[in-house]
Amino acid sequence: MDSSIWDLMSHGGYAMWFIVAFSVISLAVAIERAVAMWQFTTRARALSETVLRCLQKGAVQEGRSACERSPSPLADVFLVGYERFGRGKPEHLASATHRERQRVIGDLRTRLWMLGTIGATAPFVGLFGTVVGIMDAMSRFKGDDQVKFAMVSGPISEALVVTAAGILVAVEAVILYNYFNQRATRISTELKLLTDEFLEALEELPPEARETLAKKETGDGRQAA
Question: Model-level pTM greater than 0.70?
């Protein structure tokens, strides 16, 4: 079995090694993205519920502390809202938080371009390997006066394995790309809803809580300066 696999690899030349590398990279990116997106929405919803509950009862600092302790990337979005609240126009607060939300979504799509690139190029690499393999097989019969189909069918079928491998890896990469891209889109929609709810809760804060938060942020800004 080992020798047959090695023979297939050798018939494909360097192209087959590229195909194998593409497959390994695709799986590595998929595992890394799966870990990054694991319970992403669950943690974001849990944080949002905690912060909204704190804002509804006027416990502003308690909600901010929950953001500082949370491992969810949504916490960064909420912290920007806390920092910008009471500084400038309300639309500036909204634009700042949504910019941070876009950054979080951009991080979710990190390295997905690798899956898209592999899905687009793997078949061509496989085809290149097949062409090189066929050319090499044909060169062996230059000195023969008569060439039978049985003589060339074996080398050609072996060379076609590279194209088949390239298509297989491309299908794998495209499926993974579409899956994680769609999942990132769903998470993006969920984060937008949670961010909008957070901004509405900030605007609905009782006057005393709004004043306390605005004073605290102004004081923190002076200390930082």
Answer: yes
